[in-house]
């Protein structure tokens, strides 16, 4: 899907590099730093003005939908515990949670999600939160596949705004200094052509240079403000 966003991203890359590397022998060091900061701010402002609006999704969030599935009555808790035995048997046979979810019915999904935070291999993992989030995402997709209405509606709504949301994330992170792998992955899923164009425009090493520049610029601004107050 073709948009103008790759070109906007490319211009920001070039403008950011130009700001960071700008030289002017007619300026004193302090004035040169001010000029560089001004150029960097303009580059960020120009890109910020192009960030696409992302419509809000009405209705419950993913977390709210998953929370609503939690067993609450004695009967629901008993069913969840019974299904847990089957899940444990699958785990003992070497199946991973996401493999179990791939063919799970609603009761199995509910049981696995209820157990997930304290599941062996998850509870004590240093990546606990990441593991839980990843498996919850698998579970949510499966809910949509089996026709769970709130999940299916949410997935449909997310798909409708996926393109502007992905570009908004990439552009926002570019302004912050570095586009994360997660943001690139989101973009690739909905706009592979735009992803390839933006990746080709990304200047190697610029993200780290921009991060150092922004930190230094922030310190210089703080020092100037302190000097004025003193």
Proportion of strand residues:
under 5%
Which residues form runs of ≥5 with pLDDT under 50? none
Number of helices: 12
Number of strands: 0
Q: Mean pLDDT across all residues, rounded?
A: 93
Compressed to H and E, one letter per element, the order equals HHHHHHHHHHHH
Question: How far is it from the N-terminal to the C-terminal residue, by CA?
Answer: 55 Å
Portion in helices:
over 70%
Number of domain units = 2
Shape: elongated
Major sheet attributes: none
Task: Characterise this structure.
- The chain is mostly helical.
- The protein folds into two domains: 120 residues, no CATH class; 87 residues, no CATH class.
- Helices cover 73% and strands 0% of the residues.
- The chain has twelve helices and no strands.
- The chain is elongated.
Summarize the structure.
The chain folds into 2 domains: 5-55 and 161-229, no CATH class; 62-148, no CATH class. It contains 12 helices and no strands.
Give the topology.
Layout: H1 5-21, H2 29-48, H3 62-68, H4 74-92, H5 97-101, H6 106-115, H7 128-145, H8 149-160, H9 162-176, H10 181-190, H11 192-201, H12 206-229
Helix pairs in contact: 1-2, 1-9, 1-11, 1-12, 4-6, 7-8, 9-10, 10-11
Tags for this model:
230 residues; mainly alpha; 73% helix; 0% strand; elongated
């Amino acid at each position: 899907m073709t948009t103008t966003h790759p070109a906007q991203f490319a211009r920001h890359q070039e403008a950011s590099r130009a700001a960071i590397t700008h030289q002017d022998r007619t300026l004193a060091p302090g004035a040169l730093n001010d000029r560089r900061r001004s150029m960097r701010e303009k580059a960020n402002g120009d890109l910020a003005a192009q960030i696409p609006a992302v419509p809000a999704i009405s209705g419950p969030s993913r977390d709210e939908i998953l929370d609503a599935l939690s067993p609450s009555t004695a009967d629901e808790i008993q069913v969840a515990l019974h299904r847990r035995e089957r899940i444990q048997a699958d785990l003992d046979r070497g199946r991973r949670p996401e493999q179990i979810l791939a063919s799970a019915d609603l009761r199995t999904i509910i049981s696995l999600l209820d157990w997930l935070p304290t599941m062996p291999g998850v509870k004590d993992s240093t990546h606990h939160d990441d593991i839980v989030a990843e498996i919850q995402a698998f579970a949510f997709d499966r809910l949509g596949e089996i026709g769970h209405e709130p999940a299916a509606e949410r997935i449909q709504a997310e798909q409708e705004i996926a393109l502007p949301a992905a570009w908004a994330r990439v552009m926002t992170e570019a302004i912050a200094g570095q586009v994360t792998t997660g943001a690139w992955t989101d973009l690739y899923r909905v706009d592979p052509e735009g992803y390839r164009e933006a990746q080709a425009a990304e200047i190697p090493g610029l993200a780290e240079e921009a991060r150092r520049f922004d930190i230094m610029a922030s310190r210089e601004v703080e020092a100037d403000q302190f000097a004025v107050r003193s």
